[in-house]
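Record 1 of the preview.
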Amino acid sequence: MALARRRNNRSIDYWPGFVDALSSLLLAIMFLLSVFVLAQFLLSQEITGRDAVLTRLNSQINELTQLLALEQSNSQDLEDMLSNMRASLSQAESERSRLEQLLAAGAGAGAEAEQRASQLSGELDEERQLSQRALSQVELLNQQIAALRSQIGALEAALEVSEARDRESNTKIADLGRRLNVALAQRVQELNRYRSDFFGRLREILSDREGIRVVGDRFVFQSEVLFPSGSEVINDAGREEMAKLAEAILELQREIPPEINWVLRVDGHTDNIPLSGTGRYRDNWELSSARATSVVKFLIENGVPPERLVAAGFGEFQPLDPADTQEARDRNRRIELKLTER
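->
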């Protein structure tokens, strides 16, 4: 009986110890939960503060982008830096998402979250420094832009002065051009008058001989009047006519004022029948040029100044009559004289 009573007393003594141990365990669990809740609260505050920083950074980046667009050619390095900042911010946002996932996942993430939050805070500080350097570069660019605008303003002022001078010069040039056109028109009118006088004298001198006529503003000699067939040598009758022509030219020269720079153009023309090529001249080009040159040389021998004469050969390519008849070919073989300006 006494032994049984002692055993009952011993079992009753275990219960308070068990209760104390259970209380201690509960207190430890509550402490751990409090630490975990506190860690979650601190981490949430850190993430919230970081969101505000990220928002400010995004706003600053947008302002920097708008400013740097004004000077794209000088801000390539700054754009690269901003791109790096955006990449870093993107990484930070990824880290935030991962931390939020860890918070949602529960226990075991507190220490790692604090470590990543500390690392993220350092990265944010680095981003702030980069942003400050970017702002300094933007300020420098703004100063450079202001200097460029000042230079552009000076250039625009100089350009306005130059344009005013150009307008004045253009006015003077237009007036000179108008006066020159008037003077040229007067010279042309004077030359036309002398040409009319010259042709009138030629008609009187040559007595309207057959084979010599006026066509437009040219005096025309048929080739048969001056040259044997296929030759550039002026015949005797032609030399007489050319001597009269030289005399008329010399008389005209004494009357034309020296300021009128006139010349007598001698043009040689043939028909469209090709030369055999076995004679002295290979084709009509050479024959027409040789005949015009013979007339010019004869006039020079008779006192006409060589600087007042021009010889040209046209072959068969400037016909008076394009018909393929003997009459047309006879008309097209000719020497033309034209009084004109040099």
